[in-house]
Specification:
By secondary structure, the chain is of the alpha/beta class. It has a single domain (about 1-140), classed as Rossmann fold (3-Layer(aba) Sandwich). About 40% of the residues lie in helices and about 15% in strands. The chain is globular and about 35 Å long.
Length: about 140
């Protein structure tokens, strides 16, 4: 299966690790376009000015949307971030919406929070992703 990994760039290192694990399982895997600066500098994700300029210059959002469109499925890495278990950022939510609209399979690495904790969890639930609880063998 062709899979695009999506999620907060705070999880960039794990995206590369999960990519390798999925490839060992026989999948073809893409990580987000523009991941490189995040791998070199963990603080880049919170450097909003630099990150903004990089994304504009490199058309990162559109290229990431294109990766979603070209895949059979997306795997959302949704670990704890900013005090939220199962965190999904704004870009990840947009990429999930594109996957949902294009009838792609959507896998969540972890259970998302309940919608009474974060508003966006309602939209995530509507997309009916498959929650794999870290078990990559469930991606089929």
């Amino acid at each position: 299966m062709k899979i695009t990994i999506i999620g907060s760039m705070a999880f960039a290192e794990e995206m590369v690790k999960i990519k390798k694990e999925l490839e060992k399982l026989g999948h073809k895997v893409q990580v987000p376009h523009g991941i490189e600066p995040h791998l070199k500098d963990k603080s880049f994700v919170d450097n909003l000015s630099g990150n903004y300029e990089f994304c504009i210059k490199n058309n990162v959002m559109k290229k990431c949307f294109d990766l979603v469109a070209a895949a059979d499925a997306v795997l959302v890495l949704n670990h704890k971030r900013n005090g939220t278990e199962g965190y999904i950022g704004t870009s990840g939510l947009m990429e999930m919406a594109i996957a949902h609209h294009l009838n792609k399979k959507i896998f969540l690495f972890n259970k998302p929070p309940h919608y009474d904790q974060v508003r966006w969890a309602h939209e995530v639930a509507i997309m009916q992703p498959k929650i794999i609880n870290g078990d990559l063998s469930l991606i089929r």
